[in-house]
What we know:
By secondary structure, the protein is an alpha+beta fold. It contains 3 helices and 9 strands.
Amino acid sequence: MSAELITQGPVTCLNVTGLGEPGGAEHLSAIGALHAVAAAMGSPAGPLEGLWWVEDERPGLQVPREQWRWHLLLPLPATPEPGHLEQARESVRASGAAVDRVRVAVFTEGQCVQMLHHGPYSDEPATLKVMEEYMDEHGLVANGPHHEVYLTAFDDPDPRTLLRQPVRPA
C-alpha cells in the first residue's frame, strides 16, 4: 500500500489522555480503562487508536518516550445517551481501572495522509518517511498529532497499523 490522501470526518470516541511511553504503566492503565468502560456500555467499540505528540522543539522520535503525550481512542458507533458513560464507569469502578479518566470526545481531522504499516512498531519510521515524501510532493504539511489505528493486538507477532497524519496546504 502506498500513501494516500483521505478526508476523516467527525468520529465519536471514548478517550483517555495521558503522558508516557507506549506500553508503560499509564498507557496500559488507560487501555484497560477504555476497554472496561466500552464493555460496560455494551456497544461495539474500536479498534484502539492513538493520537501522539510531543511538547518539544525536536522531532517526536528524538524525544524520550516517557515524554510522549497521547489521546487513546475507542471509536463508538454513535454518541452515547446522556448518563450512559457515567453508568458504565460506575459499573466497572471495582475493576481498579482508571475509569474516571474515560471521556466521550469527537475528533475531526479533515484531510489526512495515511498509509498501512505492516511490521514491528520500531520499523514505523520507514513508513513515516514515505508519508513525509508524499506530503512534500503534494505541497502538504502536518496539521495535528500523528494518528495510529491498531489493526492487530499489541502482542501480535506480525502487527498492522494504519498510520495517519492530518495535513494542510504548505
